[in-house]
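Hey team,

Filing this mostly as a record. A colleague (T.K.) asked me to run one chain through the structure pipeline before their review meeting, and I want the input and output archived in the tracker in case anyone asks later how it was produced. No errors, nothing strange. Just documentation.

Input sequence:
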Amino acid sequence: MDFLVRIFLGFIVVGAFGAISYLKKLVNFSGLIMGFIVGFTVFVFPQQGLELFLLLLTFHLTAGLFTKYKYNVKNRLGVAEEKKGARAWTNVFANGLIPAALAFMEGMRSDPVFVYGFVGAVSSAMADTLSNEIGVLYKYKPRMITNLKEKVNPGTSGAISPLGEAVIALSGLLIGFMAYLAGLAPWFIIPVSLVSAFIGNTVDSFLGATVQAIYYCENCRKETEKKVHSCGSITKLVRGNEKINNHVVNFFMSLTGCLTGILLYYFFI
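Output structure:
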């Protein structure tokens, strides 16, 4: 496809999905702008832009759907991640920067390794989002990844559960299978996607349990990742580094998934 044609189609296709996402309140205005930048980069620059964009779109739409899934329940529990379920630019940037960079590099130098890194990053991001949005609804208390004997409240950073781990596995398999069906890579991309999702999310949980900033809302008597709790109260830092918030952790999760995909490619392909 001619580059100018890809630019034209990129504006139309990415813009259309962005508008739908905004109208359906999957993203707010800042998320719309950042999402367009990421989506346009992925659609236009790589040789296999349409196929890579479909993977990114799958993540975006699925994440938006499950962010809204039982949102009122999650908000009542104090574990809803985004205001009214709409994702802001910070979330889109943290999860989309690595895939966008890999897509751009694939366009500059066509090499399968960038596709494997892209799949690893997207599968990790999708697994993280869905395990958070669905895992918090697990009817039993999850356990801390740093101490599996310690039971904690749903939504606690660093907590894992059987439901969350199952969602991670399904997310990794879905993205890998779609990449295979789209012709982006041979069948080996499926286990690469699965392993990348698990390793990326293990790093995410470990960072969440050790260095991520965690605050306490005295009004609700709950821990939170936010400086201002959903009730509107200013919170106090109780552990972790104030400079390392959830978006920073998500970036390193995406990077870990990307590097896992790349390493598996070099070791086994």
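Quick notes for T.K.: The chain is about 65% helix and 5% strand. The mean pLDDT is 91.
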